[in-house]
Each structure stands twice: as structure tokens, then as C-alpha cells.
Amino acid sequence: MAKVTPISGFPEFLPSDRIVEQHFLDVIRETFELHGFASIETRAVEPVERLSNQGEDADKEIYAVRRLGAAADDEGPGLGLHFDLTVPFARYVLENSGKLAFPFRRYQIQKVWRGERPQEGRYREFTQADIDVVGDGTLPFHYEVELPLVIADAFSKLPIPPFRIQVNNRQIPEGFYRGLGVEDVTAVLRIVDKLDKIGPDKVTQLLTAADGPALEAETAKQVLRLAEISSTDASFVEQVRALGVQHEVLDEGLERLAAIMTAANEHAPGLLVADLKIARGLDYYTGTVYETQLIGHESYGSICSGGRYDALATDGKTTYPGVGISIGVSRLLARLFSQGLLKGSRSTPTAVLVALNDEADRADAMRTAAVLRQRGIPVEVAPAAAKFGKQIKFADRRGIPFVWFSTENGPEVKDIRSGEQVPADPATWTPPQHDVRPSIETPQENS
Amino acid sequence: MAKVTPISGFPEFLPSDRIVEQHFLDVIRETFELHGFASIETRAVEPVERLSNQGEDADKEIYAVRRLGAAADDEGPGLGLHFDLTVPFARYVLENSGKLAFPFRRYQIQKVWRGERPQEGRYREFTQADIDVVGDGTLPFHYEVELPLVIADAFSKLPIPPFRIQVNNRQIPEGFYRGLGVEDVTAVLRIVDKLDKIGPDKVTQLLTAADGPALEAETAKQVLRLAEISSTDASFVEQVRALGVQHEVLDEGLERLAAIMTAANEHAPGLLVADLKIARGLDYYTGTVYETQLIGHESYGSICSGGRYDALATDGKTTYPGVGISIGVSRLLARLFSQGLLKGSRSTPTAVLVALNDEADRADAMRTAAVLRQRGIPVEVAPAAAKFGKQIKFADRRGIPFVWFSTENGPEVKDIRSGEQVPADPATWTPPQHDVRPSIETPQENS
């Protein structure tokens, strides 16, 4: 057997970091459910043809899946691991349209896989937490306002830095580019999407390159001017108008984005920023698009993104337009962990270790543990009747705060942090609320 | 785009069945945490060489994973999707041994993949919920008693039929076969493991076949006699002794299984059955093995299995012996759903739909929803200001029990099952506890 080594891009957590991840996922799930989103999970695989042609370099990043024992021709159409949760969800909606009630609000928290070059916050396997609303034929505009508010509600309950949700409507650059006479709108969008990463000079170079969209210098300048516009209210409209470009698709996009900004400011002033450089790499978005920055970590890029897709789910007869946002849970946590912003208070759920005087007492110790568990207290029994010092060390290594002893005077419990030991009845003794379960520590706040 | 069709062996739940699955997973997780097991997740992929040679027809059932865009030679060693959670866990222990505290108690709830022929309860993608305890060099015997008690605790909180946990020690058949002079012990074990599926005649045929272990007829009879022994206490020992076979490995196995039966009967009389035909197909088990039957559904096979493995996790210097049990969550649910034993009370978490008199009232309705949510009540706002009958129908289709109205007399809430409508203040009104979240209905009990 070869030596055990990590596989690049497939990170795994130690138990104390996993406790932080579980807390994040629990808060996100609870928030999504409070907002009336139903959970689904989709299979990990889709036919490769359904995963293909969704933009960027997605195709070559798809992981193909095939039985080792399969003969070359007995497997039917090729399967691949899903690279997001939106494409599988659209397929799920088509497959189950007769059994779902529309508009259908669903959340989905699962792993996805992309064969990208691994780097900080970019993994080959990672967890996303998505909400989407999909309509049957039509989908009211107000969901495009609602979804970022749900995300803001979840984030407000998590120990993360302040954030801003950037919003755009793809009709704005699309109409604007068409008004400028640009032919390959998608190619220009994809280049502009890299603005934060590669800067305006490189973008200009790519836009004007003969083997690219080959824009005139003045056209490229206009494209960049549009991308630089942002506002926390509807005032971006005037700034766009001042550039003097006319197109009916542009008008529609401006009107829709202005409506989102106005409505969002009613509920959460300052939460949304209209930012006209936001485009999203995936081709299925047709209108509103979202990205989310952690303030103070802008260069890290978006940790929560999405948008409206009007044509992703269609069976030829009916189209199911949708809007969704996806929290990049692994990506968000990777940043917080690498910056030392979060850690779990212990490496196990256990709050109480029941110590043993003698191996013959194990049955009694198990009964004590069962009584404590009945009141929701996580308990384990010591692995062996070692010296008490060793049993206390066992608890200490894991961050278990309490050790339970059976003494001549009856049962007693020791808080191993303070050393205080008091008589205790397993039927009534309860640890302080904050010790019952592991908690999330934010080291910076404590220092 | 090809027509959307299910992929055989990759089942997906509708939202109301997913609510049942979530309830099961929540109860299992909560029980595992109360018993002091820490959560981990491992990556979906392992090097194929680590997955191979674990017994049965496992190799050809492995799903190989490869980037579509990968050149033939740039991917390093081949990767495959894990087919269980024990092999990845053993690798995780080796990889992180310096950072873990032993004995290490972990639980792991994840999807696994096997390219088996799909049939009822046998899927190509399914969810398992595992607990394991792994020691550093040694692992005390008492964990082999503890683990089935944890499973019994979880099952006692779930709406499932009564069950029995069957236990054996592989040393018993191994020592017995050696005492009989059998050479290929593993081959005989694998054939006996099929006893429930194919019956004693077919097993005898396979055991005596010239291209199989080629046992003498009398030897095969002895093998079958051993497999037929079972007891709910330690009395199986006498039955084995009566067969007159002698071997020191047999003695050790009998002693250990007798100790488990005695200790288990102290805590949960009747829960465990010593059943000497239980073998488990996977080769890594070295001692105690477990299977679990639902009573009344014996032909369905095991829904929770595991055992002790002494040599799975070894780096050449240190060996980390372990014992674990895995609940086949998908397999268990498939049976309960197919028999109509369970369903979710509604298809959404939403308990209250806030109706709209007019689209202009949406901002107010969203504020009402936010106030209710602050007290843990799942709420959504109606998709459109349709006629009230239509808005009530929207709730009814999803099983949402309450609709909130803004009337001339102030806010009122209607229980759409009884039709009763009463004045209500969003800051204080609370639905009955059993309506706040969806519940699990057991249709047989209600009929």
C-alpha cells in the first residue's frame, strides 16, 4: 500500500474544525427552513451532456465517472459529478414537475466537484448551500429581492466579517454592448468578469486583441466605464445614462436593477450594492446576478453568488424560470480558518467523561452516562480504569470540561478547568448551558 | 438535450420524503453526539489501490473518477469514489494520527457509491451513518459491547419496526473451519455468508464443488451445522462444543462472543442474538461482526452492519485497531417507504403563509414574516396577491397549516384544516408545538 498522502484540492477537517463547519451548516439550514425553503438532495452524477457547455472552462473541469468493471460499451451515456447544484436542480424540476407545487422553494446543501487548479479557497471538492425559487412558466420579480435578504439573515447569525452583496442585471452589459455594436456579447462578458482578478489594463488588452472580441479602443473604454459604475441605491442609472449608449435591453435591465435596489433598501439599507462589473462565469444566468464580498477580504472574491436563469429548465413545452443564490460554505470557511478567525471550543461533543475506579464498574458508569444523556448531555465513559490523573488528561486533551467520579461519598463532578469538584446527582445535575455543546470561538475577539 | 430520465440506482426523494430522511439523520446524529462521537467527513474519492481488494466483487463495483479534460498521463494514480466509510476513515486515521486523541470516537454520515446491480434497497448511491472507535496500538474489548447499544439507542427514537442485532465472531467459523482441516477459510466464509439468500442446499453445492473449496460432504455438513446455531445468551457455546471440533482460535472466538452476550444482556436483554452464520462480505473484519434485521422483514437482509477490524489502518509501524457499525440509512428508508410505513406531514418547512391583499402590501407582509421567524416559526409570503381562495389553495397543496391575513380588524390567522380564523399578533401568536415543524406520519397507526 502506498504512503498515505492528502489529495490536492480535496481538503478534510479535523474534528474541531468540523464542529465549526457543522455550526455553519446548522445555522444556514435553520435560516433556509424559517424562510420556507424545502430541502432536497440530488444524486452526485448527471449525464455528461447535461453538465457540458455551461460556460467558462467548465467542460474540461468535469469529473467523469465510470465503473471500473464496466465493459467499454455497456454503460450507456457517460456520467459526470455535478459541478454545482443549479444544473442538477433544474433537471430535478423537469423530472418531477408533475409532483412539485410551484413556485417551488428549495434549499440544497451538498458537495460539488470541479477539476480546477487548487488554490486557497478553490477546491476540487467543496460544499455549497443553495436556495432557489422556480416558477412554472413565469416567476415574479420579487423573488430577486427576497433571496439576498434570506442570505443576509443567515449571515447575520454567523460569526463572520461584515459583507456586501453586489448585484447587477446581465441585461445592462448585454444591452449596453449591443448598443455599442459589439457582436460577441458573451466573450466580452467573460473578459469583464475577470476585472477584479486581472485589472483594467489586461482587460483592455483582451478586449481589443485580434484573436479575441477585437473591440475598437474607444468601445473597450466604454465597456470599462460601464464596469466601473456602482451605487448603494438607484443612482447608478444616471451614471449609465451619462455614457450615452442606447438599447432597449439596456433600458429593461436598468429598470429591473433599480427596482431591486429600491425594494432592498426598504428592508435592509446598504446591504445591496449595484455593481455593474458583476457578470458571473456561468452561461445560464439571464438577468439579475449576485456576488458577495467579505469586507476587508475583497481580493478573496465572492463567497456567495447566484442569479436569475430563465431558460435552464425547459422540456420544450414548459419553461421553469428560476432565481437562486449559493453560499460557498467551504470557500467561506477556508478563509476564516486560514486567517485564524474561528475555531471549535473542543474536539468532541462530549461534555462529561465518566471516570472509572475499576473495570468492574463499567456497567454502573454506563448507567450513569445513560441518565445524563436522557437530559441532552453528551457523555462518554472512560476507555479504561487508569489512574485518575490519566483519565483527567484524557478529558483535557479533547477539551471535555467535566469528569464524573464515583466516590466514597457518592457521585461527584469536577470542572477540570477550575478544579472545583462537587457532589452531583446524575438525574438532576446539568452543566452550564454554554458547556453542554461545543461552541465556536473567535480568537481575535478574545485576544 | 436528451429527455430527462432517472438513472437506475441513483434515487432522489421528493420534498416530503426528504423531510422523513432529515428526521432520521437528525435523530441519528443527535444520538451519536450524545454518546460522545465526533463528526468527520472524508473526501468522496480515494486512490483506487486503497479501495481495491476489500473482498466480494468490490473491485468491479468501484466507480473510477477522472477529469474529462485530463491528458491520459497527467492525473497521477487513479481515483475512485468510496464504497463505504470505513476504508476512508482508516486512511484518515493514518493521515492524521498525530493530531487525533485515541481511542478516537467518530461518526460519519455521507453518501457512498457502489456499481451494484440496482434492486429494492440496493442502490448505486446511498447514505450511510457510521460510528467507529479506533485505538492507537490496542483497542479494549468493551467497545464491541458498547457500539450495538448506541445503535439500539438511536433506533429506539425512530419510528421503525422492532429489530434484532445479530452478532458473531469471525474467529468462531475460522477456528472451526481450521479445526475441520479446511484450507481456504475465506472462500468458505463468503459462501456461508450467502446462506440466507440462497439456502443450505445451494451452499452445500458450492462448498463441495470441485472448482470451489471442494469440501468433503461431512465437512460441509459440519460447516452448515455451525451456521445454524444461534442463541440470545451465551448458550451457543455448548451447542458449538457439541459438534466436537477443536481449535484454539475457535476457543478464543467463543470466549469473546460469550463475553459480549453476557455484557449486552446486562444493559439491553434480548437486543443481541449470537448468530453463527453472520460473516459479512468485506474482508477487513477480523473479530466481532454485526448485522441487523427488522423483525417481520428478515428477508430484506441487514440494515445496519459492522464489526471489528484489527489490521485495516496500519502504517507499518503502528496499527490502529477499530470497531464500527454502519446504519444503511437509504436502505432502511427504502423499505419503510416501499411498505407505506412512513411519510412527511407536509412538503415544506413552512408553518404559516402570509397572504397578500395587494402586491403593494408585500413589504408589510415581509415584516410580519420576519417577526414570526424571530420566534422560530417557518414562514413564507404568498407569491402573488391572488384571490384568497387561491392563496389558501397554495397553502393547502403544500400542507401549510396556517394562513395569515391582514384584515380591516387587524391581523388574523386561519387554521385552514378547521377553518377557524382568529385575531393574532405576530409578536406573540404561536402555532401548536406539533405544527411548528413538519412531523413524521406513520399511516398504518392512523388507519
Describe this entry's structure for a reader:
2 copies of one chain form a homodimer. Chain A is an alpha+beta fold and 447 residues long. The first copy, chain A, contains 16 helices and 19 strands. Chain A has helices at 15-34, 48-51, 58-61, 86-95, 142-156, 171-179, 185-192, 195-208, 217-227, 236-241, 248-267, 329-338, 362-373, 388-398, 433-436, 443-446; strands at residues 38-39, 45-47, 63-67, 79-81, 104-113, 125-134, 163-169, 230-231, 272-275, 288-294, 304-309, 322-328, 343-344, 352-354, 379-381, 402-407, 410-415, 421-423, 440-441. The first copy, chain A, has a 9-stranded mixed sheet with strand order 1-5-6-12-11-10-7-9-8. Chain A has a 5-stranded mixed sheet with strand order 15-14-16-17-18, with helices on both faces. In chain A, strands 2-4-3 form a 3-stranded antiparallel sheet. In chain A, strand 17 and strand 18 form a beta hairpin. The longest helix of chain A is centred in the first third of the chain and has 20 residues, at 15-34. Chain A starts with 14 loop residues before the first helix and ends with a helix. The mean pLDDT of chain A is 93.
Give a topology summary:
The structure is a homodimer of 447-residue chains.
Chain A: H1 15-34, E1 38-39, E2 45-47, H2 48-51, H3 58-61, E3 63-67, E4 79-81, H4 86-95, E5 104-113, E6 125-134, H5 142-156, E7 163-169, H6 171-179, H7 185-192, H8 195-208, H9 217-227, E8 230-231, H10 236-241, H11 248-267, E9 272-275, E10 288-294, E11 304-309, E12 322-328, H12 329-338, E13 343-344, E14 352-354, H13 362-373, E15 379-381, H14 388-398, E16 402-407, E17 410-415, E18 421-423, H15 433-436, E19 440-441, H16 443-446
Parallel strand pairs in A: 1-5, 7-9, 14-15, 14-16
Antiparallel strand pairs in A: 2-4, 3-4, 5-6, 6-12, 7-10, 8-9, 10-11, 11-12, 13-19, 16-17, 17-18
Helix pairs in contact in A: 1-5, 1-12, 5-11, 6-7, 6-11, 8-9
